[in-house]
Automatic annotation (TrEMBL), chain A:
Name under which the protein is recorded: Amino acid ABC transporter ATP-binding protein
CC annotations in GO: plasma membrane
Entry's Gene Ontology molecular function annotations: ABC-type amino acid transporter activity; ATP binding; ATP hydrolysis activity
Keyword Phosphoprotein: no
Domain ABC transporter, chain residue ranges per copy: 15-256
Transmembrane spans: none
TrEMBL record, chain B:
InterPro entries according to UniProt: AA_ABC_transptr_permease_3TM (IPR010065), ArtM/GltK/GlnP/TcyL/YhdX-like (IPR043429), MetI-like (IPR000515), MetI-like_sf (IPR035906)
Biological role stated in the UniProt entry: Part of the binding-protein-dependent transport system for glutamine; probably responsible for the translocation of the substrate across the membrane.
A biological process from GO: amino acid transport
Pfam families given in the database record: BPD_transp_1
Organism: Bradyrhizobium hipponense
TM region positions: 20-42, 191-209
Keyword terms of this UniProt record: Amino-acid transport, Cell membrane, Membrane, Transmembrane, Transmembrane helix, Transport
Every ABC transmembrane type-1 domain range: 20-209
Lineage of the organism: Bacteria, Pseudomonadati, Pseudomonadota, Alphaproteobacteria, Hyphomicrobiales
Protein name: Amino acid ABC transporter permease
Membrane topology classification: Multi-pass membrane protein
């Protein structure tokens, strides 16, 4: 690591990424990416598969270690590249505790109930007392509309319910930012709405969010900024509605032509 | 025509019982020690450091790919010459059998750990767990469940392998029955009885393991 410095910066951006580079072998996945997310901002990352958007998201909480550039979330900044040492295990863990992540395939812990899944972070990472963790976890489950599913194991939940538990699990860490990695891509179409509804409410409560998604209509509705990536570079960036309704770049237009861009969001059937 | 006479074995019952006690006790020791070695071996092969991985792999393959009988003899007769370490037959055979079993255990444990989807430890990391915490809280509880049938199976093999320690004059069931066979001139009856004794202990155990496997499969 470099500087996990505590410079209380004057600018208001919550996430600041500068010159981020990442290669897997000879495959250059991210080519000098820069990105800012304002406090309370919601940024949607869209682009064809292989464009690097998931890798970019995973670089924000350092699940993927960048080759170069810098990542700042809140007051913690890491620089990468020649002459910098990789962050040690403890520093990384502490940093990740402040960023929540939701995965495409939920990654719930199958040996724990929904409640235990949500309690796990507070107990193991935040060293919270069991009773306090349980109160917190029940509140988070209630928030995603799953209070009555607390004692069920993930195997008995639907995809949409699993993903809502996963969101509650991330929120129980009371993170500064939330990262969503194609959170609805593995869901049956009729279950997408209930997860999007939870994400939409989270955004309206002022959570800083970065969302990798294929739900263009959702991005248009909920995100305030939109970034279109292709082949490891940012092709186009701007206010979500403007980019979606009126894309400037040919590549953006070509990509967006595959989607219904407007219209109602999928209904949240199991709305809490 | 051979006249079977099992009645004669009755007078050796204390000898057999004594040997059986040694066999069972010995099994417990080499299963526990073997699991400890296996744990070290498994984490060694999964280490971030190349040197540690190489050392662990070398040990595992050395014990996995040579006959246990040779290892027993080697530990007792060759180690004192090479390293100047004198060991009693019991220590030498406990060590050899534990390391031999440990090499198989470590492959089972390693396989169990890597069979858990990497998304699990990733989810732990995303919550802010250190790799150690994610291993203890998330990966191992799931992996152990998958390992248990294979570990039980290997332990059954360990139990049978104890019969080899008789070559170093450790007084286990097989050794004592050799004594009885020489004394009574009834080797056929004696060894048949030994086989029955092993089976009588192992068959209920294998049934338990199979039941466990079925329960595990339901839980998946």
């Amino acid at each position: 690591m470099s500087e996990a410095s505590n410079n209380t910066s004057k600018n208001t951006s919550k996430i600041e990424i500068r010159g981020l580079r990442k290669s897997f072998g000879s495959n250059e996945v991210l080519k000098t990416i820069s990105l800012d997310v304002a406090k309370g901002g919601v940024v949607a990352l869209i682009g064809p598969s292989g464009s690097g958007k998931s890798t970019l998201l995973r670089c924000i909480n350092l699940l993927v270690t960048p080759d170069g550039g810098s990542v700042r979330v809140g007051d913690t900044r890491f620089a990468f590249g020649a002459g910098t040492k990789l962050p040690n295990v403890k520093t990384l863990a502490k940093f990740r505790a402040t960023t929540g992540m939701v995965f495409q395939h939920f990654n719930l812990f199958p040996h724990m109930t929904a409640l235990q899944n949500v309690m796990e972070g507070p107990i193991t990472v935040r060293r919270m007392a069991r009773a306090d963790a349980e109160t917190l976890a029940r509140a988070q489950l209630a928030k995603v509309g799953l209070a009555e599913k607390a004692d069920q194991y993930p195997a008995t939940l639907s995809g949409g319910q699993k993903q809502r538990v996963a969101i509650a699990r991330a929120l129980a860490m009371e993170p500064d930012v939330m990262l969503f990695d194609e959170a609805t891509s593995a869901l049956d179409p009729e279950l997408v709405g209930e997860v999007l509804a939870v994400m939409q409410r989270l955004a309206s409560e002022g959570m800083t969010m970065v969302i990798v998604t294929h739900e263009i209509a959702f991005a248009r509705e909920v995100a305030d900024r939109l970034i279109f990536m292709r082949d490891g570079i940012v092709v186009e960036e701007g206010p979500a509605r403007q980019v979606i309704d009126n894309p400037q770049e040919a590549a953006t237009r070509a990509f967006l032509s595959h989607f219904h861009r407007t219209g109602a969001l999928p209904p949240a059937n199991a709305a809490p | 025509m051979y006249q079977w006479d099992f009645g004669i074995l009755w007078s050796y019952r204390w000898l057999f019982l004594n040997g059986l006690g040694v066999t069972v006790g010995f099994t417990v020791v080499i299963v526990v020690l073997g699991l400890v070695f296996g744990l070290f071996g498994a984490f060694g092969t999964l280490s971030r450091f190349r040197a540690v991985r190489l050392i662990a792999l070398t040990f595992i393959e050395a014990f996995r790919c040579t006959p246990i009988l040779v290892q027993l003899i080697w530990f007792y007769y060759a180690l004192p010459i090479l390293a100047g370490v004198e060991m009693t037959p019991i220590t030498a055979s406990a060590l050899a059998l534990s390391l031999y079993g440990g090499s198989f255990y470590s492959e089972i444990i390693r396989g169990g750990i890597v069979s858990i989807d990497s998304g699990q430890s990733e989810a732990g990391a995303a919550l802010g767990m250190t790799p150690g915490q994610a291993m203890r809280r998330i990966v191992l509880p799931q992996a152990i469940k998958r390992m248990i049938p294979a570990l039980m199976n290997q332990s059954i093999i360990q139990f049978k392998n104890t019969s080899l320690v008789s070559v170093l004059a450790v007084p286990d069931l097989v050794y004592q029955s050799q004594v009885a066979a020489h004394d009574s001139y009834r080797p056929l009856e004696t060894y048949t009885a030994v086989a029955v004794a092993y089976a009588a202990i192992l068959i209920p155990l294998t049934i338990l393991v199979r039941r466990g496997e079925k329960r595990m499969a339901v839980g998946e």
